[in-house]
Amino acid sequence: MNLSSKLLENTVQAFATLPGIGKKSALRIALQLLQTDGQEVQEFCEAILNMQKNIKFCKTCHNISDEEICSICNSVKRDKRLVCVVETIREVMAIENTQQYHGTYHVLGGVISPIEGIGPSDLNIDSLVGRIASGEVKELVMAVSPTIEGDTTIFYLAKQLKDYPVKISTISRGVSFGGELEYADEMTLGRSIVARIPYKK
């Protein structure tokens, strides 16, 4: 992309590094910002910098938070005995949008994938085992993407937790095998959570 301004070109390249934004979309955004009031642009930039600098990760579930403990874990309306295990923060948002789930979460930070060099020690598994060991959690809902890596992760967790009196269930296969959970529509995802099935160890 040949532009008459190197400054504009650098801005376009910066926006194009974001997921889902190509060079044309990046150029539209850059041109829009160029025509926007300077105060608004400054507030836009400050919001991003403030988020990056001050956002925290919940000490209990690893979800994003403004405080040490997130609003979900802190809510008295949430069933602390029920924990939904997810890969990333995006799945928390997707499940929350269904309004079908009223327990808490645990964000693993990914799934076990030897091909990509991701092992159990790279995930938030120890803290999950610690939560189970406390005795408060009665059921884990494995809301992990139905892929080989996802199933491997569920199998590993089930083995790690076999000596604890906790029920393990998985979301029903309304979400097709091989699909990414965050892209499932809200109705399908909500039904999959409600119609969860016991995990056969």
Tell me what you see in this structure.
The protein has 201 residues and is α/β, with parallel strands linked by helices. The chain contains 8 helices and 7 strands. The protein has helices spanning 6-16, 23-34, 38-54, 71-74, 89-98, 126-133, 148-160, 186-194; strands at residues 56-57, 64-65, 79-86, 103-107, 139-142, 167-170, 197-198. The strands form 2 sheets. A 5-stranded mixed beta sheet has the order 4-3-5-6-7. Strand 3 (79-86), helix 5 and strand 4 (103-107) form a beta-alpha-beta unit. The model has no long low-confidence stretch (mean pLDDT 88).
Summarize the structure.
The protein has eight helices and seven strands. The protein is an alpha/beta fold. The protein folds into two domains: 6-54, RecR Domain 1 (Helicase, Ruva Protein, domain 3), CATH 1.10.8.420; 77-198, Dna Topoisomerase Vi A Subunit, Chain: A, domain 2 (3-Layer(aba) Sandwich), CATH 3.40.1360.10.
